[in-house]
Amino acid sequence: MMSCRNARKLKKGGSSLTWLCHLWPALLAIPLAVSLGLPAQQSAPPAPLTNATAAPSANVVLDQMSAHEAQLYDQLEEMTPRIETYMQNLRPDPQLGEVPIADRYYLGILHFKGNFNTLSFLTEPPAHWRQWIGPLDDRITAPARRVMDLDVFKESFARMLFPGADHFDRQHFRFVFVRREFLGAVRCYVFDVVPLDVHDKGSFWGRIWVEDQNNVLVRFNGSFWQDRYGHPDLHFDSWRENVRPGVWMPAYIYAEESSLGYGLFRHARFQAQTRLWGYDLRTAGHQQELTSMSVEGADLNIAAPPPAPMAPVEETRAWEQQAEENVLDRLEKSGLLAPEGPADKVLDTVVNNLIITNKLTISPPVRCRILLTTPLESVAIGHTIVLSRGLIDSLPNEASLAAMLAHELAHISLGQRLDTRYAFADRMLFADQDSFRLLDLQRTPTEEAQANALAVKLLTHSPYKDQLAQAGLFLRQVDARRKTSPHLFSPHLGNAWFSHDYLTRLHAVEAAAPPLHQADVAQIAALPLGGRLVVDPWDGSVSLETPPAETLLSAREKMPLQLTPFFPYLKRYTADPKAAASSTVAKAASGGGGQ
What we know:
Layout: H1 4-13, H2 20-29, H3 58-75, E1 82-93, E2 97-111, E3 117-120, H4 138-148, H5 156-161, E4 173-183, E5 186-195, E6 204-211, E7 217-224, E8 235-244, E9 247-262, E10 266-277, H6 312-333, H7 342-357, E11 367-371, E12 378-381, E13 384-388, H8 389-394, H9 398-413, H10 435-438, H11 445-460, H12 468-480, E14 498-499, E15 502-503, H13 507-511, E16 533-535, E17 542-544, H14 577-589
Parallel strand pairs: 11-13
Antiparallel strand pairs: 1-2, 1-10, 2-3, 4-5, 5-6, 6-7, 7-8, 8-9, 9-10, 12-13, 14-15, 16-17
Helix pairs in contact: 7-9, 9-11, 9-12
């Protein structure tokens, strides 16, 4: 038990815990085994509940939750999800609230074995977050360096995935039932949590949400208490999603500090989003398990008809398409490119509008795919246009989307080909983390200039010709953030947006746009990051969601190209009926579906 004297002693050491003097007696007065169907201080009803309707006791819920945590901790040792963190340092602004002054970015493969380390996709993989702060001004980077000294990916980040590693139980923490509430469509029990040993540095303090069907932890919010003058307390909100029946995987982590103290008189402001996906990539890149393969009519001994002879032009196109397919499959296998899905069709529709109105004839047909990363980029891989998730999320309207697609369509229309060295299969045999380093898809400055000129012509003869001012405003917003958010505009695959601080991408469209008025609520030049595409943490598939438009109260709520907190709509996993039917048919065909 902790006395008020102990609380004052902790405050003297640097943590503001005096509130426990008043809260702790109340915590101890609440019986832990209270029925979760009743308020904590309400007496039991006259007639006892039957077994069919009785709510479980807090002890049962918490013990099952703890068992699930230990099981998940062990299961994740066999998985290697992709992890991406984007952070923005902020400063207060009298009109816009908070605006970015610097940013940092990390993308890697998370390994749960041992000490939770990562393999970086970036060209220069950092050993510590301190190294990827870079040679920026000390006034800007000092707060970030202080945060990153926590060795996030080996210690602190792992703790943001688990509130108590494999010992989050009643033997180490005190849980106080608060209420029931819904997170999306999932009803949860809510508990406040404090460690039994309040002097234990690094212990979780905060609140947890436990879904009420299988008693699995789905969200926790708080911080790991540290010595203020050794390491700061990082506050975070960690979410999980139901990816398979009864399986909830870490998916989102939002971290924020509005006044993170470091040194004696200095404070830092920052926001960070962390995403995880690709827990199961076995079917990525058209891969299949050998045991699931079957040959139709194998007992009929029927030979396939020989293909028709191909003309030299067709042979060349087939060779180029083979290189294209190899690159796309390799990116998908690496967990970087989303599997083909309905969201691609939305992009295809806009591309077709450009093709039809400009009377273009392109063979093979142009298609679109989605890169799962945050930095804003687009690239043409053969006849496939790839746009990043971050770019699609930030585009405010269809005209802006059309402008991004028109630039890559111009590369295709000009016959600027993908290097066919990628048609050789051995060039795809490399480690996943080397994908960006070994796939060189950038265009020459001459090709970029030609594509920019043709893209403007395509747009002026398209259904979007009267809306190009909107696309230009987006480019102006990008230009305005080039110095404060350099990592956001650093592409993994394609060409950079800027050359010597000059916006080279569709500069003519930007030049024709009206001035950018950041304080004008009616002018939406760009959206916040992460509000449109939803990535399935299990397999990296993407769905497109369009939330209802909200009336903005002030310019503070515009937040163009800025991070926002995560509030996913949680729901329970339901198998795709088509996939389930296909699986049943496959089992029956292989003899596994009958007696």
